[in-house]
Predict the structure of Lsr2 family protein.
Amino acid sequence: MAKKHITQVIDDLDGSVLENGTTINFSLEGRAYEIDLSEKNARKLREAFEPFTVAARPIGSSAPGVRRSSGRRAVSSRDLADVRAWAEKNGHSINARGRISSAVLAAYDAAH
């Protein structure tokens, strides 16, 4: 017995079967999304985003060891062991492991 498996990509917006569709990845408020759309619906999405993307600042990808702070300046990677030692010496509450709060990191950056 022969079997034939057919995979169809469906437009996530209108449910139509896609012949020449596209997958669009985007993020909003820190959450990433992916949507399969027909060329027509992809164009509509891009046109809807255009006023916002034109006015927005692109963040792209940073080089390894560099991050962007809320002040939008490049900040080199910190040695977290140094941050923890500094925080303890300067009266900041900090755990020996885990995430270091943004308040402690900001205080460390301001002091260095």
In short: Helices lie at 39-55, 80-89, 102-111. The first strand starts at residue 22 and ends at 28. The domain at 66-111 is CATH 4.10.320 (Dihydrolipoamide Transferase).
